[in-house]
């Protein structure tokens, strides 16, 4: 039996943004700038959209409630009584201990202290000012 379905070849997709929905865009970008040394690429006039330079992918922030979230089913914000959100941001940093200490001084909540993993990466976990989980990780060499 032959198939009449033809396969379409497409170019690989490029990750454009990682978008985090946050209660206060300006407060969040100020914190990420201090915590990770990220620079603001764009903050729109309404201050309801911000983009930060992170290398090849953009980290963007936008409010929890807006037209787009309403049409896609809403956004649940992490809270103490709820389990964490289902996204994790991983920042590669050259000195895990120094980065861990620095973000804690800026109000991040420690989840795990820095530790060596069996796959050759040193990692620590924190929660940002909005309760989102961030992994601080070293490069993984293959």
From TrEMBL:
InterPro entries: Glyas_Bleomycin-R_OHBP_Dase (IPR029068), Glyas_Fos-R_dOase_dom (IPR004360), GlyoxalaseI/FosfomycinResist (IPR050383), VOC_core (IPR037523). Transmembrane segments: none annotated. CDD domains: VOC_like. It comes from the Eukaryota. Residues 14-139 form the VOC domain. Pfam families: Glyoxalase. This is VOC domain-containing protein. It comes from Sphagnum troendelagicum.
